Amino acid sequence: MQLRLAVLTLVSFSLIAIAQAGTGGHQEPDHTDDRLRAAIIRELGEVPKDLKYSSQEFDLNDDGRAEVLVWVPTIGQGGTSGYPLFIFSKTQRGYRLLWQFDQAWTPVIVLNSSQHHWRDIVFQIGGGGERMRYVLVRHTGESYSHKYTFIDAKRIRGHRVIGKDWKPSIMGPIPQQ
Questions:
Q1: Would you give the DSSP letter of residue 143?
Q2: How far is 15 from 89, CA to CA, in rounded Å?
Q3: Domains in the chain: boundaries
Q4: Which of 3, 85, 133, 167 is most buried per CB count within 10 Å?
């Protein structure tokens, strides 16, 4: 009887650990959005074995509907120069990509300032031998630009939507696991 109870306890703890490990670093507690995961995989062009991502909703254009900012620190999708950053809009069928930047580091900050009615966004770039610096991207009226401006950290005023999720190493930045 004690052996059966021990086995059942072990199985229960194993199932809980597996379920918790499957969240992929997703910042929204208590559920995983399979449609968001599918949209990330669609944009990456492949199915990563161990997809990890941090996401947060924020209404970037004050239209009453939140966009979703997603940072994907998944092995095979980046390196010491950064990892993909996506902005998606929610649709009835899933998520539509609005913008992506291939080599970004957190934190991701939505500023109080805006251009063309879309909030400005700040994140870090660097690594791969370059020092870490904050960059500002602005909306062009069509999409967020891939051209960026360096910005002094002291000038950043806004909402941290995805926190710093990496640590420095002698090889360059490494996402936290």
A1: S
A2: 33
A3: 25-164
A4: 85
pLDDT in tens, 89-105: 999 999 999 999 999 99
End-to-end CA distance of the chain: 38
Q: How far apart are CA 47 and CA 64, in angstroms?
A: 32
Indicate the length of the chain as a whole number: 177
Question: CA–CA separation, 73 vs 53, rounded Å?
Answer: 6
d(CA 50, CA 24): 8
Report pLDDT digits (tens) over 67-78. 999 999 988 898
Angle CA(139)–CA(140)–CA(144) in degrees, nearest 5?
40
Enter the DSSP assignment of 15. H
Q: What is the pTM of this model?
A: 0.79
Question: Which is nearest to 165 in space by CA: 175, 173, 155?
Answer: 175
